[in-house]
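Input/output pair, single chain:
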Amino acid sequence: MADSTVSSGETNVHHESTHPQHSLMPQQAQQMDSVEAQVFSAHLEGIKERIHQLGQKMNALEVLQKSEEGSQQIKVDRFQTSVKHLESVLRQHVNDMNTKFAQVVSRFNNQKINESKIEQMIDRHAQMVQNFENKMMKMQKIISEQELQLINYRSELEQARKELARLKKL
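Output:
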């Protein structure tokens, strides 16, 4: 912008030498250049101030962002710690449940084994009782047969005594 003013000033200088009525133009151009430079300088200072304010806002935003990132990181760390704690507690509960389940299964298997043993004992007892009853029946049969035989022997003995008593009388 200043270059175009200078070049127009130079053009005016040429006009000035050729045209005497335009002798005031270079002075006005210089004043214009000075005013434009002041306006431009003021505008530039405004822009610098605006850039400085924006820089301060950017710095404040960066500080705020870092603070938020730190706060978020703390929250994330706490969350991760909580998750790890919950995982640990859950793992412990799962291990406890597995242990208890294994104990229940072991007890159940032991109970089945004991029930099986009891059933075997009951079966053996029932078989022994059956064998005993069979032997008792045989014994009762033998006793009955021997009682009959004894009765027969008594009756024969009685007959023999009667016969002997009769023979003695004779």
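The radius of gyration is 67 Å. The CA atoms of residues 139 and 145 lie 10 Å apart.
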